[in-house]
Each structure stands twice: as C-alpha cells, then as structure tokens.
Amino acid sequence: MTPESDEIATSSAEQEELRARLAFPEAVHLFVEPDCVGQGIGRALWQHALAIAAGLGHRTLTVVADPNAAGFYRRMGAEPAGGQASDLEPGRILPVFPAATAVALAAPGQSV
Hints:
By secondary structure, the protein is an alpha+beta fold. It has one domain: Aminopeptidase (3-Layer(aba) Sandwich), CATH 3.40.630. The protein is built from 4 helices and 4 strands. It has a 4-stranded mixed sheet. The longest helix is centred in the middle third of the chain and has 15 residues, at 41-55. The protein is globular, with a radius of gyration of 15 Å. The two termini are 25 Å apart.
C-alpha cells in the first residue's frame, strides 16, 4: 500500500504497474464544475497537485487534458507536448501537458 493509493499490489505484474504509475505522476480526473469556473478553484487544485508531486520528489506532473481545458493548462505554465488518443472517444486526440514541479524549478540543471 502507498500513500498515493489504497491499492495493494498482489502480483509482481501489479507491483511493477504500480511502481511505473508512481514514477511518472499524472493528474487524473482534475475537473471543476462548469458553474464554478472562474472562481480560482482550478488554479488551487492545480497548485495542490503540483505540490503533492513535488513533495513526492517528482520533477514533473503530466496532464492528459480535455482539449477545451488546454488554455487553462497553458495559463498555469504547462506547455503542450504532443497528444494521446482518448480511451473514451475513438479518433479524439487529447493534448498532453507536462509541467515542472518545485523540485525541477529548484534544480533546473538536473535531468527529469
């Protein structure tokens, strides 16, 4: 069991998958209700997610975003780095935004 997950890996394959997921943190399901957009909630969630990733020692946090949220992630300082096929909508490509955490910003000369 890990602090990031309630999952318990029971086989070596599950343990390897869990290790891989923790090695490259990805924000999953980071949403703000449409009626609440523009109130700073998204920015607070984003900053909290970056802080958690940094606290775990990660240099980057990657978001696979809804195309409609791309502008938000750009405003948060993330730059697009390609796309990923949607698991839910065949043919739809979702933008990928890796963002530097405080760990990376504190030591910019080190590799990610």
